[in-house]
């Protein structure tokens, strides 16, 4: 009922580029938002700067988006920061990207703590340099008592490997007699994925105009609403996130039903 009234109010001339948090339906805020933060390199190139300048600028966007997500009442914000395929990039760029978490957290951790944010990491530890892992683990440790937004960094994350990894662990558990083959269902599979403590994303955002998934959360986005923008990640801002959520709220999610 409340939700219906709210939707009605919305139809009367709302400027989509000047949204406020109060223009959103508080009863229909996506719980889990995932973002493919893309376009840092192109943003830099367009300004005649080296690609790494784009990555540095992109950190500012992370700060703003986390703040707004928290304010709006999103529970989980999963950010694709480095894929299992990104190791193919030039060594200098990879090194810079591996230094970024430390730099970001050195600057932002106090404020994240103050904002009651819980920092988490989702990805494969193996290839990550020690200083990168240490910085992230410290942030996770220092924010684990917090109860606000879960800021989940997908770092050295790749969905195909995540699924392979899950299958291997399931097979191990079947062979060890911990579970039987017949118990393997969607619910069990979810428990073996890196997202096991989170619900599936409600909304997936990709910046920079690319319309692909790039090995992100393949299993989890079966019924996720997709939204994209031509803005490069360093240009994405509060207004962009509010617009994405606003448009999400206009959609009808049917999950195969009527
Ligand atoms: C996204 O920006 C950041 C990472 C993938 C680490 P890109 O670095 O992919 O920037 P473009 O897509 O080359 O512009
Ligand atoms: C996806 O962006 C990975 C991250 C945002 C971390 P990419 O820039 O690596 O994706 P492709 O290569 O354009 O598919
Ligand atoms: Mg890219």
UniProtKB/TrEMBL annotation:
<dbReference type="GO" id="GO:0016094">
    <property type="term" value="P:polyprenol biosynthetic process"/>
</dbReference>
<dbReference type="GO" id="GO:0005829">
    <property type="term" value="C:cytosol"/>
</dbReference>
<feature type="active site" description="Proton acceptor">
    <location>
        <position position="86"/>
    </location>
</feature>
<feature type="binding site">
    <location>
        <begin position="39"/>
        <end position="42"/>
    </location>
    <ligand>
        <name>substrate</name>
    </ligand>
</feature>
<comment type="similarity">
    <text>Belongs to the UPP synthase family.</text>
</comment>
<feature type="binding site">
    <location>
        <position position="43"/>
    </location>
    <ligand>
        <name>substrate</name>
    </ligand>
</feature>
<protein>
    <recommendedName>
        <fullName>Isoprenyl transferase</fullName>
        <ecNumber>2.5.1.-</ecNumber>
    </recommendedName>
</protein>
<dbReference type="InterPro" id="IPR018520">
    <property type="entry name" value="UPP_synth-like_CS"/>
</dbReference>
<keyword id="KW-0808">Transferase</keyword>
<feature type="binding site">
    <location>
        <begin position="212"/>
        <end position="214"/>
    </location>
    <ligand>
        <name>substrate</name>
    </ligand>
</feature>
<dbReference type="InterPro" id="IPR001441">
    <property type="entry name" value="UPP_synth-like"/>
</dbReference>
<dbReference type="Pfam" id="PF01255">
    <property type="entry name" value="Prenyltransf"/>
</dbReference>
<comment type="function">
    <text>Catalyzes the condensation of isopentenyl diphosphate (IPP) with allylic pyrophosphates generating different type of terpenoids.</text>
</comment>
<dbReference type="InterPro" id="IPR036424">
    <property type="entry name" value="UPP_synth-like_sf"/>
</dbReference>
<feature type="binding site">
    <location>
        <begin position="83"/>
        <end position="85"/>
    </location>
    <ligand>
        <name>substrate</name>
    </ligand>
</feature>
<dbReference type="GO" id="GO:0008834">
    <property type="term" value="F:ditrans,polycis-undecaprenyl-diphosphate synthase [(2E,6E)-farnesyl-diphosphate specific] activity"/>
</dbReference>
<feature type="binding site">
    <location>
        <position position="55"/>
    </location>
    <ligand>
        <name>substrate</name>
    </ligand>
</feature>
<dbReference type="GO" id="GO:0000287">
    <property type="term" value="F:magnesium ion binding"/>
</dbReference>
<feature type="binding site">
    <location>
        <position position="87"/>
    </location>
    <ligand>
        <name>substrate</name>
    </ligand>
</feature>
<feature type="binding site">
    <location>
        <position position="51"/>
    </location>
    <ligand>
        <name>substrate</name>
    </ligand>
</feature>
<feature type="binding site">
    <location>
        <position position="225"/>
    </location>
    <ligand>
        <name>Mg(2+)</name>
    </ligand>
</feature>
<keyword id="KW-0460">Magnesium</keyword>
<feature type="binding site">
    <location>
        <position position="206"/>
    </location>
    <ligand>
        <name>substrate</name>
    </ligand>
</feature>
<dbReference type="GO" id="GO:0030145">
    <property type="term" value="F:manganese ion binding"/>
</dbReference>
<feature type="active site">
    <location>
        <position position="38"/>
    </location>
</feature>
<feature type="binding site">
    <location>
        <position position="89"/>
    </location>
    <ligand>
        <name>substrate</name>
    </ligand>
</feature>
<comment type="subunit">
    <text>Homodimer.</text>
</comment>
<keyword id="KW-0479">Metal-binding</keyword>
<feature type="binding site">
    <location>
        <position position="38"/>
    </location>
    <ligand>
        <name>Mg(2+)</name>
    </ligand>
</feature>
